[in-house]
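Supplementary Note 3. Input sequence used for the single-chain structure prediction.
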Amino acid sequence: MIKKVLIANRGEIAVRILRACKDLGIQTVAIHSTADSDAMHVRLADESVCVGPPQPRESYLNIPSVISAACVSGADAIHPGFGFLSENSTFSHMLEEHGLIFIGPKADHIAMMGDKITAKKTFANLGLSTVPGSDGAVTNIQKALKIANEIGYPVLVKAAGGGGGRGMKVAHTEADFAEAYETARREAGVAFGNDSVYLEKYLSNPRHIEFQIMVDKFGNYVHLGERDCSLQRRNQKIWEEALSTVLTDDIRESLGRKVADAAGKLGYLGVGTLEFLYENEKFYFIEMNTRIQVEHPITEMITGVDIVREQILIASGKKLSVTQDEVKFRGHAIECRINAENPETFFPSSGVVSNYHCPGGPGIRVDSALYSGCKVLPYYDSLIAKLIVYANDRNQCLARLQRALNEYVIDGIDTLLPLHLKLASNQDIISGNFDIHFLERFNREAI
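The predicted structure, written as discrete structure tokens, is reproduced below.
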């Protein structure tokens, strides 16, 4: 069993991992930049090690510093959380070379799924449908234009080596294509160090549906149902639900088992998420995330499975704690991502949290590293908290969500709380009438 975990992350996910470790009786080591010395995860950990200055490339992304911190502290495992080094196959390989356990999948699978083209081909061969598009990266604009005309407009140009909404551009007509192609390549090169792009048919009104899977080294695998992540801004999720309102029990069971079987056949190890676009009762696989997801808490709420705990146990060589027959879905859960951003422009906000009060009561969970007087820094991702609400059904869940949002106080910086309040009372949201383009339309109408 793992004895001591170094948490190679910060913010709310570092606190979440730390709590799972403490529940298992595992010692924790927090790493931090010089700017994060007073952060919540540093205060709660058993030990802490400073790994560099505020800029992520010199601290949280500095592989030699992170590995040195593990060696100095005597940690035998590293949990990367999400973002930063969580999907870096080189980092995973290096940990193995240093005799450290990476709490995540095999490095080969990280690399395989990190290339979206390879990921699509892999799961297509394992029986999952994919969005019509180019057969691999397209490096020549003339060839790309020919393929786009064959697919039919609108066409989506996507980065092959990354995600999170970066390096994605839509060409609605042939006249738009050259600009979309070149812009996507340029953004991909800057964001991921890889300017390869591929083409997909742009679906008009899809839902974004993802399935959570877990696989151990003994060949046991399960799915934990789906999450609906359709409410997005700039291709990044801000509101997630479990289960989706558009899937029947039969569809959920059929696709869930198909997804879990595919991960099992792949020889995957650990937790992961397969993401799909769903339109006209058809599912199209788009990518796999080989890490814990930001939105994992809503799956935990409806299943009672501690996914981070399972990650640690799998990495320790243990069997899954549940079988597929033991996985039961109860009630409904919604997660609102509370970002430090202007709720209308989404421009990042930083500063000191002058007052902080989180909501409570039945069915309310807050994953956060905030406290009154803490600093929200400009160097890192804007996600500062997650409000997770659970109830017996969706209507009750929405009512609790409105209550919790009205109770939540974060003063001193801009946040998305006002936007979530508007969404929670919007009739289209209440009726479940939304898709991945909803928030774009919502913001235009608001302006």
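The longest strand covers residues 221-233. The CA atoms of residues 67 and 289 lie 23 Å apart.
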